[in-house]
Amino acid sequence: MSKHLASQRYVFKIHSSRLRRAKWDLQLSIKQARENKELIALSESQMMRFIDELNGITNPELHISDIKSKIKNLKYEKNLSVSRPKIKKLYEELDAYQFKKDYVCVVIDNNKDYYKMYKHGFKINKITYRRLLGTTGGVKNNTIVFVNEKLLPELKRRIDNGRNMSKEFSPAKLEAYNALVCSSSAPVSYPNGIVVVHDCITHFKSDIIELDDTDLEEPSMKYIKDKEMELNDSDGYGLAMPELMKRWGEEIGEDFLLPGCVIRNSFCKGAIFPIDFQKFAYDHNIETITDVWGNSYNVSDIELVLTESMLKLWDSYSSIEDYLDNCEKNHYSFAITKTSEKELENIRTMNYQFLQSYDFSDGEIEELIEPTVTEIQDILSDDYRKTILYTKGVGLNSNTIQNLDNSFSTALMIEPEMKNDPFVKSQIYSMIKKRIDDAKVGVLNVPANYSLVSGDPYSLCQSMFGLKVTGLLKSGEIYSKYWIDKGVDKIVSFRAPMTSHNNIRKLNVVHNEKMDEFYKYMTTPTIFNSWDTCADAMNGFDKDGDCVINTSLPLLVKKTQELPAVVCVQRKAPKCIPTEDDIMKSNINSFGNAVGAVTNKITSMFEVQANFPKDSREYRILDYRIKCGQLYQQNSIDKTKGIESKPMPSEWYNWIANKISNGKSSSEKKKYWMNRKLVADKKPYFMQYIYPAEKTKMLEYIKRNNEKCIMKFRITLDELLEKETLTLDEEKFIQCYYKRMPLGMSPCTINKICWAIENKFSDLRYVNDSDFDYSIMKCNVVYSKQLFNKIKKIYESYKKELSNYMQFAKSERIKSDERQIQKYTLKEDFKRRCLEQCPNEEYLCDIVLDLCYSKSKSSKQFAWDICGDMIISNLLKRNNYKVTYPTQDINGDIDFAGKKFSLETTEIKFDMGIKDEEDDEWLY
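The structure assignment produced for this chain is given below.
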């Protein structure tokens, strides 16, 4: 999904234990926070816009852009005594706009800390902070937002937005609705006419598997034929006139009519799709539309249709006018959080959740991994042109090539000699190693795309205009322009998190003249029909911004079984008129995220299940438990909503819980024996490539057993495993070795994929035997020894801090996006430190290159982090501003990913403001 760039905002993120040690009165400078990794970047949001406004800050983006421009201009000043104080002052001004002192994220280390802060607040730099709210994502990670107590009353008033305060809600739900103000978003103009309509509800019959754990130790599972089903087909989405979507696209800097977007406003959340509902009304001789309050409006006066599932608190207002008046009074705007792309990609990757339920033969596994293996082998060929294709994609042309970043692959397009740069070589090696490790856990290339989900807007139009709902799509059908244009008539659809094969849907891609006309503006979303259980089957997706991965890979289409949806009996959270105490307690109940743990236990069950024949009792019991995983995932989510929920029985995954002595009767003891046989208490072998601690455990186990083997049999473990004839002792040793392995070794699907990839790339080695003259990257200026030593000191600090953070991120399995944010913040901090000491970028570039490249073992990442744009500038100047890149050509001499390419050279209009290669990854 496309997300839109805005200048980052920095806030403190501090552990409650740190505040406790400071006796709830902490002194912390921005510089110290940067050094302590207690400063994080947040995206622009309605909350940030509120805080700016209350502080009298207008047009912050304009000011930030102006300051950055002044800093950039000073980078070429030769007189450092003039530029140094100016740079320092400008960075202080930049902090004033980007650092939000009134907003603090606190990681709650224990509930006692939270109670203390909730009751009494805390101080940082003499500002008293009070609890504001917990965002949905933040609460899962035990993080709560606190704000300056002086702003709190006004922020709370604006969040409530004049709603009816006597309405009852589940406290956790109200908190989630309040937290919508913190969603990353770009403001857009108000539509000319808005209406809120009832959701489109359909009814049909379908075969399902029903799971229910009400008043039971273990869930009941029953197959129900022709169950009466109800579907909210418009759950979370609405419609916009195409003119509005074009206007909004222009306002956020896009050059196309948005095929779909996700919006926010006060208590409003959901996706919007472009449909000419005015023409639909005209074609059906309809002139007015009635909203949820019973008010009628001329259709021709409406640009935006919201559904009741989008405007969460619609019944807390007396009319749409009442709601909009309050939004205006409290300075809300409509805002876009993400958009559907102009074009969808052609290749996506699978993952182990998507593939683990398939039963592939060895030949089919070879077929599945072949495109990924070929891609890796292409990069291993040491052809820098293929490296460019892998990193930059296969769609390079004379237009896209103009947008340069400061990555090593850009350097390769400018100067082929850069292929001998030890930094570039190490980057390529790391990239290949990571790609191989990813492939071992099922991250495999397939023809696929990732697209926004929509219900059938034809059904919604029929519903909101009071017509009989038929829709244009039938059960089992989808509309996708992407697949229609490719001539594909059948796809397989996936959505995470997944548990069983029942979560996968095989769908028919259909179209006709009427569909093509009606859906013509929805060029990239996937439109689902209104008459089947896809939403239930795919772990309860709704249409408020959820996405699916769709693939046409013939192997997956052939091997996907069409199974009934697993439907979990739903329970509702108790409602009340929530007080602050109620909401605070709901935060505590929501701390932590058990969905991942449940999903891992299910994956372990697939590994255990692979030990048994499909017609065995053991296999069937594990099949039941795997299906129940969907219920326990739902229970984990329900817990955060204040619904009383049961965890997965510990007997299913914990050996100790199955003590035979626990059994009082013969039947109970038999049950414990069976549980021991089926206990899923080990992660599968392949997961060592996801969890570094598991790999360490595995290597230590192998090392210990190798030592034992040498002592006992006078041969290594590898030699013993390769022996054709074994003694009785040797057989027992091997049996014991496999049985006690810390990871599961049974031939489950992903383990088999992992072993196949390991066999193909077992001898990967990093070799750096090329000479490289790094002077091609230099500015060739003369700098002082004193200046060199100042930068060297910063460089030593950089190496230490980066190493410490990467070790921490690896051991704690910090998420990729959070890791990128922290790395970017770290890089920006060190760039700032360097520029404050040496504002002239040419001097700085040559100093860091001499620091990093004069000794072979020095870290070269520092040079690219600090002076990547200047390196690219120097390479361009050296090559007369020409860039050579591979482009598709049926007669080309470069074979990559099953296509042919040839090199083209183009001259670029050089802009000194080269884009940072990491900017797009998170600054939105």
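Interim note for the steering committee: The mean pLDDT is 91. The longest strand covers residues 220-232.
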